[in-house]
Write a structure and sequence with these properties.
Blueprint lengths: L9 E4 L5 H11 L5 E4 L1 H17 L3 E8 L3 H12 L5 E5 L3 H11 L5 E5 L7 H6 L6 H15 L3 E3 L2 H11 L4 E4 L18 H6 L4 E4 L1 H4 L4 H18 L5
Parallel strand pairs: 1-2, 1-8, 2-3, 3-4, 4-5, 5-6, 6-7, 7-8
Helix pairs in contact: 3-4, 4-6, 6-7
Bound molecules: cytidine-5'-monophosphate (C5P).
Cytidine-5'-monophosphate binds next to β8 and α9.
């Protein structure tokens, strides 16, 4: 397997209000970023058209729609997503039936299906409120097992839970980690945060980074810094980055 370069392990979340703003940011980041996440904010501002523009620039696209619905609806939605030429899509990993439906909907397309385990902004208290007695780590691991069983390509999981998932499921199952923060920076509304180095050390394959780059005032510089931290973390593990 050819391991992607450190630059291609960084996924920048284009959480901006307009396509114009996204275009400006992508232009400024230039060749420092190879993968972009298009999520709900941009999608509702014409972001689906921008997906084509990103593909035209040779960027890979992660469509973060976090689907959760009955199996038939999810399956048919994924079949249409597969036609868009995006590389990754997200589905909530709450139940194995939905996940199996998502995998079936993809058909023979190379689209990678990622199951969201436990949102990185949630705490143990939030889970208790939902009636869950499991810890965030236990629930994330349980949902990762379900996603694997259902045939998903990987999960979205906090860096705090990545190691347990990697240990149980092994290599080849993608772990994509949001909630990344540079040392000493604000956590915003995120709860289970880790640094880029720690996320890689714990077993993450890809890091999703939004505000630490987009609101930094110097996005290219921060993206290059994070890619270099990914490279160093790989080197510390004795991997080629
Ligand atoms: O700005 P920040 O780096 O916190 O952005 C994280 C991105 O990852 C957001 O686009 C958010 O929607 C997404 N995300 C997340 N936690 C998950 C799944 C996706 O923060 N569990």
């Amino acid at each position: 397997m050819i391991r992607p370069a450190a630059r291609d392990r960084l996924i920048v979340a284009l959480d901006v209000p307009t396509v114009e703003e996204a275009r400006r940011l992508v232009g400024e980041l230039g060749d420092s970023v190879g993968v972009y996440k298009v999520g709900l904010e941009l999608l509702f501002a014409g972001g689906l058209g921008f997906v084509d523009e990103l593909r035209g620039l040779d960027k890979r696209v992660f469509l973060d729609v976090k689907l959760l619905d009955i199996g038939n609806t999810v399956s048919r939605a994924i079949a249409n997503v597969a036609e868009l030429g995006v590389a990754f899509v997200t589905v909530h990993g709450h139940d194995v039936k939905t996940l199996r439906a998502a995998v079936a909907g993809r058909g023979a397309s190379p689209l990678k299906i990622l199951a969201v385990t436990v949102m990185t902004n949630l705490t143990a208290d939030d889970l208790r409120q939902q009636g869950t007695t499991l810890s965030t780590a236990e629930l994330a691991l349980r949902r990762a097992r379900m996603a694997h069983e259902a045939g998903c390509d990987g999960v979205i999981a906090s860096g705090q839970e990545a190691a347990a998932i990697r240990a149980e499921i092994g290599p080849g199952f993608l772990i994509v980690t949001p909630g990344i923060r540079l040392p000493g920076s604000t956590s915003d509304d995120q709860s289970r945060i880790v640094t880029p180095e720690r996320a890689i050390a714990e077993g993450a394959d890809y890091l999703v980074v939004g505000r630490p780059i987009t609101l930094s005032g110097e996005p290219r510089k921060v993206a290059i810094l994070i890619a270099s931290q990914i490279r160093q973390a790989h080197a510390a593990q004795g991997k080629r980055a």
